[in-house]
Amino acid sequence: MILPIIPGIPILVAGVAILGTDHPIVRPFARRFEQLRQRYTKSQSKDEGEESNKS
Is the pTM of this model over 0.90? Predict the structure, then answer.
């Protein structure tokens, strides 16, 4: 089921690269991706802080 999706991912990324992040179609997804990235990096920094306190 997921196999047909895998080849489409690079094509989607290439399309976004061509359009740019300021395009009206891409803008909502770019904002969402940025929020997810910030949440992920915030959780990673918390994990690293806890590990350094254990040492």
Answer: no
